[in-house]
Design a protein that fits this description.
The complex is a heterodimer of chains A (330) and B (335). Chain A has helices spanning 56-63, 86-93, 113-124, 129-142, 159-171, 189-206, 217-223, 242-246, 251-259, 299-303, and strands spanning 7-17, 29-40, 45-49, 71-76, 79-80, 96-99, 177-181, 209-214, 226-231, 234-240, 309-312, 315-317, 327-328. Chain A has 330 residues and is of the alpha/beta class. Chain A has a single domain, classed as P-loop containing nucleotide triphosphate hydrolases (Rossmann fold, 3-Layer(aba) Sandwich). In chain A, the strands form two sheets. Chain A has a nine-stranded mixed sheet with strand order 6-7-8-3-9-10-12-11-13, with helices on both faces. In chain A, α6 links the parallel β7 and β8 (209-214). In chain A, α3 packs across α4, α3 (113-124) runs parallel beside α5 (159-171) and α5 (159-171) runs parallel beside α6 (189-206). The radius of gyration of chain A is 21 Å and the shape is globular. The relative contact order of chain B is 0.13. Chain B is α/β, with parallel strands linked by helices and 335 residues long. In chain B, the strands form two sheets. Chain B has an eight-stranded mixed sheet with strand order 6-7-8-3-9-10-12-11, with helices on both faces. Chain B folds into two domains: 4-224, 3-Layer(aba) Sandwich (Rossmann fold); 234-263 and 276-334, no CATH class. Classes of the chains: A alpha/beta (330), B alpha/beta (335). At the A-B interface, α6, α7, α8 and α9 of A face α7, α8, α9, α10 and α11 of B.
Chain lengths: 330, 335
Amino acid sequence: MTEVPLLKVSKLVKAFPLGGGVFSKSRARVRAVDDVSFAISRGETFGLVGESGCGKSTLGRLILRLIEPTGGKVEFNGQNIQSLGSKEMRLLRRRMQIIFQDPYSSLDPRMKVDAIVSEPLCALQNLSKSDRRRIAGQLVEKVGLRAADLNKYPHEFSGGQRQRIGIARALCVGPELLVADEPVSALDVSIQAQVINLMEDLKKEYNLSYIFISHDLNVVEHVSDRIAVMYFGTIVELAPAGQFSTSPRHPYTEALLKAVPIPDPHRRTEPFPMQGDVPSPVNPPPGCAFNPRCSYAFDRCHVERPRMAAASPQHLVACWLNDGRGLWID
Amino acid sequence: MQQNILKIEDLSVRFHLPEGVVRAVDSVSFDLARGETLGLVGESGCGKSVTSLSILGLIPSPPGRIKAGCVRFEDQNLLDMNTERLRQIRGRDISMIFQEPMTSLNPVLSIGRQVAEPLMTHKGLSRSEALAEAAEWLDQVKIPAARQRLGDYPHQLSGGMRQRVMIAMAMVCRPKLLIADEPTTALDVTIQAQILSLMRELKEKLNMSLLLITHNLGVVAQTASRVMVMYAGQIVEEASIIDIFDQPFHPYSQGLLKSIPRFGDRRHGRVRRLNEIPGAVPSLIEAVGGCRFADRCPYAFDICKEQLPELFQIRDGQRARCWLKYHPARRRQSD
């Protein structure tokens, strides 16, 4: 594969200062995203799962450069996005867009659908008002609403319909990459299915790539080609989606899979083995961040942090249990 | 053989809003046996929470009003009771756990005080006795170093820990019935698994009945022995946990079960397209003549739009509110 990946993230770090005001001398920092690397090819859906606070949303925002990283780089189509000036960045924003979780708070209640959907066109492209309206009309129909809905306000729609509006807004500038941050988590199950199917249809039609961020493993497995599991700011396992149910390699992934309640009363699972909470980010444990909750942890896990290694060609794991079997990669 | 601890008959709850009268719960009837776990599932706005709040007289009124019905708890009708007597039952015989542990705990009281409160109110324990027992319960719900944490405030705890405190509060008086309204929805999966297994364990220990309200079909499958599916304020299907998953009858139950992505689908190579239930839940303000699901139902025919079906017996222990019971050929034709 010599082709330039659509997105390449290398050694990305984001540290947030902790507590205190502007004048506080406290230098404590939390590494919300800690040394994350991966690449996404065109047309791929890349799933990002993890529990709250694991850094998955921060990672999504770094990729779109909504926040600046502390270290590392993000390359879109071979171009380092940190090096871009504001004008060039605006051009790039046409090519990467975001869909938010909460369809209630992510739409301005005082704007009509027409204005919401075509706002990115105003900001990023020079088009006449009638052109913008035409494009908005086509898009709302594409996402399963009616052109007449352009004159309505967000409160007139249900949660699922609002999420459709959010998707139309993201699509209107013709992006190649969509970061979807928990796009269906706030929706009811039957509506969730509608939105997931819509996203899959649009992906095919426009050859989109998705970064699909979610805490719901069932949903992520369903939509993704590859999945990265995040814990405490780092990716602990990255593999093709089909491999997760059969051969998870990281003890955290394994625990996560066991914790998902199976919608099948014939398969009642054993009481859950993993105890405890995610460690405090202020005082991370030495070595592997998962060691306090890991039932396989041995001496090395308490002193040295494992790095991503290939357990098999497509399957990367950051765990000392896999050491010796794979190759180190940078 | 089994004795019913709770019997709800023909419960109807209305909300009187400026826009009109919302028929939030419409003629809901069900029984709950001693020691049983009954799941109440449905999507938002289907009336499952309103049903559970009505049991303890917690419907805000106005705008809410219980229009008709009867909630029998051990042969007393809770709806006829005055507030004073209801208060003696709340927290002692019937407890409730809510979805949001942050908003349902009092932020200015220590957790020890909050867990001890029901013991002082209902059992007449002194403050120090109650605190000692509270510490035991916090230990039971697996809060590490419980004794030292009695003085902690809710904001010092994580979401999972707060939900444990809520459970301890609900359990201290050893209730006969626990109503859990989306107890794990706000929690991460690993924490959810811990809380569910804790609830199961305590339920066994106290031989308590559990009314579990959730939208998560996985949680129901893992926890409940019987399920009721609600749609637009009505029960549309009632069945054992096995029957509802293996042979759901109502088109809504069927659609719901087919619309969830299941982990492990990828292993079989081909990923099936999720089933969609077209459309959205109807407004509960307008009076609907026929079946409330008719507009979204793939099998609907003339009678469905005209006349509301009753809960017909499908097989032993399974009932469904659907005319297909008498017109089975309709289903085959459409498939």
